[in-house]
Amino acid sequence: MRLISACSMVAACALIGCGSSTDVTEGTDAAAEAEAFFCDSPSPVVTHRGITSLSAPPPGATPDDNLLVLDSGEIEAAGGSEGPEPPPPGSLPRPAPTPVTRDNPGASGFNGLTHRDQLLAGTGEYAGTQPSLEPPDVPLCAGNGFILQAVNLAITAYDTRGDQLVAPTPLNQFFRLRPVLDPETGTVNEFTSDPKCYFDPEVRRWFLTIFQVDPLPVDPAESMRAHVELAVSKTDDPTGDWNLYEVDTTSDGEDGTPEVGECPCLGDQPLIGTDRFGFYFSVNLFSLETSTFQGAQVYALQKSALLRGALPKVDVLGVPALEGAGASLQPALIPPRGRFERRNGGTQYFLSSINSGRPEERIAVWAATNTRSLDRCAPDIALDQVFVTSQAYAPPPPALQQPGPTPLRRLLQDMGFDEPLERLDTGDVRMQQVYFADGKLWSGLGTAVADPERAGIAWFIVEPDVRHGLAARMVNQGYIALDDTSSAMFPAVAVNARGEGAIVYSLSGPDLFPSVGYSLLDERGAGLVHLVADGARPEDGLSGYTAFGGDGVSRWGDYSGAAVDDDGSFWLAAEYIPDLPRSTLANWGTFIAHVRRDATDPEPPRP
Fold it and tell me: Which of 2, 131, 230, 484 is most buried, with most CB under 10 Å away?
């Protein structure tokens, strides 16, 4: 006899699974009716919004720059505190300096999207509606001969030669949302941010997400709603058609959503991953009324339905606070020819750090088990967690940069503003992109290092085990840190099925314009800092200047991107300052590097 879970509300069952079982014998009329009822009732939190395409025509007339700043980093970091005191210098890690080389055998690259590309993107009603925005956020995914790159408000596709296949397209235009700005009034129509993308090598489809927040309602009695917008390609060609989905993350008990704390909330910075059965994203919930952190959630969506263009079954998993580790859970990605974890009815792994504002020496491993139940009528996924002792990490300080031409700064000084050369925001200690490859979890985060104090990178290789409950052990760990007052920041790790990896990041210092570097990684450790793209001048964007409400520290990041291609090579992307035409209010750009392990890494791995 099999027990079929039954709930009093079908929507709740489809949304969060059932917390208890009712004795309904399989094969009875009641069981059949209950199962059919559940299967025919998709979760109300997900809607299908139609079809879209990246194949945008060339951009039209060039709009003027505008002065509106939309800064997705204004929200307090989950699990931390506003403006924490810097950790005591004696508590910071002091790793041996990592040697730097400009020798990059087997590596090539090209310039990706810039602030100017983002600003000028858009056709028809979207022309002239893009705001000036820092930071870019730099997701990247690759497969089937294509590279897909997004920044905060635009997206494009390249072939492997670096030829741009479609014009930069506003993400709001791609997702069929209203333009970000009303060009007549300058007001915000539809706030979106934090793109993430992934090419799933098993099913040969592309996934893309952003978060979205409705504008303020005209009627004060109505509440704002927030969503994660999801696009799933219909083929393995990202320039073809995509299915559009919208997931309600407001979490206020309305429209089928769970009721959480002081929500309605926005689901900040969705982080994505897949296993054989599901597509997953985690969000940090922030109250739309108080901006305070209300906890994290993991959304598990039935992958087979998404691939058919159908409404998926959904399980929403609440995440316990757990001493600051219960936020920014990074789901694991799988490389080509990699293996999903099939134990415990299918398992999706996550990593998170402890974002307390103090030095920490633990990271958290999470496992969502019984993911196979996403293909059943009522998903019933469990989320487990265990801490692993780690090397020390602490919130990194802002990065210095080399002096040089700063025309926006000079203009502001001529207008009477006292603007020093900006420093660069290096983020916090949130865990960055995770890969599950060769039976291990690979990732990294930003950290303060000394002496002198500067920003560096801590990387981790963790082996999880779910055979007898969740357990995990640290296989290897280490740091990437330059040997002077220069900083390395915003790492992204990608690892192929053979356990060979690469880490990409931005670099900056008093003798170094903001640049792009990478290090090779395997189970033995990380190699040299390869300087693959030299910056051409200082960062000179609006977000750090007092004239625009800044404090002398420019937004940077918030993340880099790394992907494994079908042949096991790596595509890497990070922010830097290129020698390219700029816009009035910002000069950031991105660099996309292609790295082949079989032709590189002449140096032995560092112990």
Answer: 230
